[in-house]
């Protein structure tokens, strides 16, 4: 099985499980590597209730060390963060990058302005929104995130569809400019299996997006976005089939920012 690089820890306040349980689950799933990438703090202050606090960073380093100790030589442990793409975040992301020799940083668009649009808490806001406009804004931010060159991997590309809000017509009009920006940036994207378990009932990104990404030569990782040990490597069989159908023959591994490829079997 490919590596699973997008996984969380209880430090983000909405995940469960111990490092030992996650490692055991990764071993059971037969993953090539297990990567820990919890929701990074935003600034040194409190910022919404679904990410780790800056003050708990030492606990995050301990969590990673415990996973490494439990894994020993049975499976490679990687570490990074899932970072939020926010206005003027560059110096903060550079600060996070300097904290440790991370294997990779994942960039995610969870906010449009101050609205964390994928948070079920604010579902009502969708009802008052123009879906076409929200999608336009989302993909503009996604392309800007790629252009920033701050991240190694770009997370759940079409997360904006999470609650089934999709404009009419051919969605490639949104995908194409983003694909172009990603291809130029050299960033990898992830095929994130969590979407299959959300109202949209589809992986992130959709098959059409994945085909365009493949044609543009964009590197790929497959990830579960696990928030509990039993979600590690979830639906990787389905994801491999989807990636292969889009023309992918390999996924990318990250070792302190250095890349190599792993064939998709
Ligand atoms: Zn989360
Ligand atoms: Fe996310
Ligand atoms: Fe995540
Ligand atoms: Zn995520």
Tally of strands: 10
Choose one word for the global shape: globular
Number of helices: 8
Largest sheet, spatial ordering of strands: 1-2-3-6-7-8
* Oligomer type: single chain
Do you know the CATH architecture? Alpha-Beta Barrel
Strand content: 15-25%
The end-to-end distance, rounded to whole angstroms, is: 8 Å
| CATH homology superfamily | Metal-dependent hydrolases
Major sheet attributes: 6 strands, parallel
Q: Estimate percent helicity.
A: 25-40%
- The overall number of domains is 1
Structural class, by secondary structure, is: alpha/beta
Mean pLDDT: 97
The poorly predicted ranges are none
The CATH topology: TIM Barrel
Features:
265 residues, alpha/beta, TIM Barrel, 6-stranded parallel sheet, two-stranded antiparallel sheet, globular, binds zinc ion
What's the short version?
The chain has 265 residues and is of the alpha/beta class. It contains eight helices and ten strands.
